[in-house]
Amino acid sequence: MSKKYKNKICVYCGNESSKTADHVFAREFFLLTKRDNLPKVPSCLCCNGQKSQLEHYLSSLLPFGGQHQDAKTNLTEMVPKRLSRNQRLHEELNRNKSYSLLRDSSAQVVTSMVLPFDGEKLLTLFEYITKGLLWHHWQTLLSDEYFVQTLALTRAGEDFFQNKFLNLYSPNRVSVTLGGDTFRYIGAQGVDDPRISAWVFTVYNGVRLSESGTDLGETSTKIGALTGSKRLLEKLPLA
Ligand SMILES: [Zn+2]
Fold first, then answer.
1. Measured CA distances, 192 to 133, 169, 189, 200 (Å)
2. Is pLDDT at 216 greater than 50 in this prediction?
3. Between vectors from CA 206 to CA 202 and to CA 211, what angle results, nearest 5°?
4. What is the mean pLDDT of residues 67-71?
5. Long-range own/partner contacts, residues 97-105 (CB < 8 A, 24 or more apart)
6. How far is the CA of 75 from the centre of ligand 1 (A)?
7. Mean confidence (pLDDT) of the chain
8. Confidence label for 110 from pLDDT (cuts 50, 70 and 90)
9. Could you list which residues have their CB under 5 Å from ion ligand 1?
10. What is the CA(9)–ligand 1 centre distance, in A?
11. Which of 43, 201, 206, 216 could form a disulfide with 223 if both were Cys (CB 3.0 to 4.6 A apart)?
């Protein structure tokens, strides 16, 4: 492994010495042919292990809701193998699946399979991803006095997020698509404090995230993330 990732500070916990290079976006989310040049960061073994637990779960689940063609390919070619190695998750999904009516991308009402989905796991994974990208793009580490807050964005929430945070002046902005649009994100870094940042992520061109699964109303398809000092968090209108 290159020296770039070893014996550095782990970007996720900000404490331990790194032992490995972690893919910020796990390779298993991508088709085999679309895994080149994925960002990597220094990670300790503990954070790497906790993050990969989330990745195993989510790479089995998210392709079911993805609107991107690769999500469908992933679903038919890779997910069955993954689930055959994780019998417990497979049975849990089978036991709890249901069907409900949803609107598809052309606003048609369609029957859709709804799987039980632990949204907390998704938001926690994106906390890791946000920290990873702060380091990957700007070599910024968050210390204990800083937070990462992630949330599922409705359409209105996305506009609010864009206007309130991402449109603010920032010399450091990124707009990236990875693996043929498997992941897409935009990020902007604070001017006064590099540890302040805002991000919007799109997974598989929009994954339907509906925890109730029964309403025809709005579901969120994007994830927003903010980092900043804990003092700042109390003033944010997020709760
Ligand atoms: Zn760590």
1. 19, 11, 9, 21
2. no
3. 110
4. 79
5. 98/213, 100/213, 100/214, 101/216, 102/208, 102/210, 102/213, 102/216, 102/219, 103/216, 105/67, 105/206
6. 31
7. 84
8. low
9. 10, 12-13, 16, 44, 47
10. 8
11. 201
Instruction: Give the separation between CA 203 and CA 67, rounded to whole angstroms.
Output: 9
- Distance (Å) from CA 142 to ligand 1 centroid: 12
pLDDT number for residue 152: 85
CA of 1 to the centre of ligand 1 (A): 18
Helices 69-77 and 45-65, axial angle in degrees (round to 10): 110
Ligand 1 centre from 90 Cα, in Å? 29
Give the residue extent of every domain in the chain.
Answer: 3-114, 142-233
Euclidean distance between CA atoms 39 and 17, whole angstroms: 19
CA 138 to centroid of ligand 1, rounded, Å: 18
Q: Do residues 113 and 96 make contact, with C-beta atoms less than 8 angstroms apart?
A: no
Taking the C-alpha atoms of residue 212 and residue 98, their distance in angstroms, rounded to an integer, is: 11
